[in-house]
Amino acid sequence: MRINCSCLKCTDKPSYINVEINEAFFSGKTISCSEGHEFFFISASPRSQFLIQQGVESFLKGYYFESFHTLYSAYEAYKKEFVAAHSYNEIKDLESVKTMLTKLDRSERLEGAYVTSFISLSNGKVPISLSRSAVELRNNVVHKGILPDKASCEKIGNAVFKFIGEGNLLIAKRCMEETDRFPLNQLYETDYAQSELKKKGFDTSINSPEDFYNKDFISYSILLNILSSMTLIQDKDITDHMFTDQVKNGHFIIS
Ligand SMILES: [Zn+2]
């Protein structure tokens, strides 16, 4: 997976850096443009949206095996991001959140933590869960080697989209009701990226346009699709066919 990001120092003409979306994309790495401008790059967008987009684009290319697995990975990644965002909102300490996340290494633990976080943020509402048939489908693909086809991808895709959509809707509603100033999941990702940059010795304060164009780091955020942390989702957007609708748009953003 790769994505284009613009170089801030190529001011004469627009120039893009083709960045590989790998683990270092989220933990930080050095990238450079064709003119030799070097930056320390870190994503300030959650990984689930890149997995979601990869699931959509693989589906569009007919790579159903990759699409299915990526969509399911997005579901697991989203739960972790949601729990992290909730915990960070409570305790405001990134290191403690990081330690807590290491304890959620098993899927049933993560599931329990997600339900608890969701109930806490919604004042008592229990989140939807994947249907029994969607879980069976996932188990058949992951544990029995069943090859997923187009219909399987749509089934798991629509289930995962609705699940994540519901989580994002809760976060969006809290902003609209002015409980939170920013979407909690985006706030966590932004603060995480800032903290990693500070650890590397970068001054992340931007006080003038010059500061912006002269900085040697890129804290990268992007709105990729309806499930991005910066998309303002509404009740009417939550349906049983969100994935099917998204693939009909046919957008290729990452490659
Ligand atoms: Zn450049």
Dominant shape: globular
**How many structural domains can be distinguished in the coordinates?**
2
Tally of alpha and pi helices: 10
Number of DSSP strand runs: 5
Structure classification: mainly alpha
Strand content: 5-15%
Mean pLDDT: 95
C-alpha Rg (nearest Å)? 19 Å
Distance between the termini: 5 Å
Low-confidence stretches: none
Heterogens: zinc ion
Q: How do the strands of the widest beta sheet line up side by side?
A: 3-4-5
Notes on the protein architecture:
There is one protein chain. By secondary structure, the protein is mainly alpha-helical. It folds into two domains: 2-45 and 190-220, no CATH class; 47-188 and 226-249, no CATH class. Helix content is 55%, strand content 9%. The chain contains ten helices and five strands, in the order ββαββααααααααβα. It has helices at residues 23-27, 47-61, 64-91, 94-102, 107-121, 132-143, 150-176, 184-199, 209-214, 242-249; strands at residues 2-6, 16-20, 29-32, 38-43, 217-220. A three-stranded mixed beta sheet has the order 3-4-5. Strand 3 (29-32) and strand 4 (38-43) form a beta hairpin. Helix 2 (47-61) packs antiparallel against helix 3 (64-91), helix 3 (64-91) crosses helix 4 (94-102) and helix 3 runs parallel beside helix 7. The longest helix is centred in the first third of the chain and has 28 residues, at 64-91. The chain is globular. 35% of the residues are buried. The mean pLDDT is 95. The structure holds zinc ion.
